[in-house]
Amino acid sequence: MNLVMLVYPQLTQLDLTGPLEVFSRFKQLTVHLVWKTLDPVEDAGGLRILPSVTMADCPQADILFVPGGPGQVTLMEDADTLTFLKQQAEQADYVTSVCTGSLVLAAAGVLTGYRATCHWLSLSQLAYFGIEPVNQRVVIDRNRITGAGVTSGIDFALTLCGELFGAESAKKVQLSLEYDPAPPFTCGSPAKAEPEIVAQVRQSTRAFQQHREALAKRIADDMAG
C-alpha cells in the first residue's frame, strides 16, 4: 500500500514525522516522501529532510498525505504541486492532512464539500473553500481524514491505521510508542489555555495569520470564478 507524504520547504517537521513514526510501524505501508527534486528540503526549524521520490516518478498513492507549516502559503500557489495533488487524489483511497496541510488540499480543490479540521489559528479559513470546519483533533468524512495542529498528527495516524488495519493493531503500536500524553501544562488548545495566553499567541502570529488568511480568501475567490 503506497503512502505518499508530501515534503516541501518550510514545513513543520512534526506534522510529517509524528505520523511517519506511526506509519513506519506497519509493514503493509510503503512510504514515499515526495517533492519536486531529490534535494534535501529544509523545514521551518532548519531540519533537513531527504525526499525519496520526485513528483514525476511518484507511484499512485493509496494514501495521500500533506503536512502543514509556514511554507504552506507558498505551496497554495504552486501550480506543479496543486496539479500533482489533484491527480493523486483522484485515485487515492484516502486523502489526508495534518495542521494547515488541509489548506493546501483546499487550494487543490480536493476538500470542497467535506468536513475537515486544521490548526486552530487557521481553522475558519477552510470555510472559504466550501469546506465545513470542525473543531476536533481528527475528522473523518468519507475518505478524507484530517488532523488538527501539529501534535494531533500522531492521533491522526493512529486513527487512520485503526481504520486500515484494525483497532487492535493500532493499539499495539500506540503502546509500543508509549503514546500516553501527560503534558506539564493544561493549555494545549484555546479552550483550555488561559485567555491571556491565547491572546499572546494570537498577537505573536497576527501578521503571518493575516497574510495566510488573505491568501486563502483570494485563492478561494479565484477558484470560485
From TrEMBL:
Fetch the InterPro entries from UniProt. Answer: Class_I_gatase-like (IPR029062), DJ-1/PfpI (IPR002818), INH-QAR (IPR052158)
Where is each DJ-1/PfpI domain found?
Answer: 4-160
Please give the biological process terms from Gene Ontology that the record holds: regulation of DNA-templated transcription
List the protein's name. Thiamine biosynthesis protein ThiJ
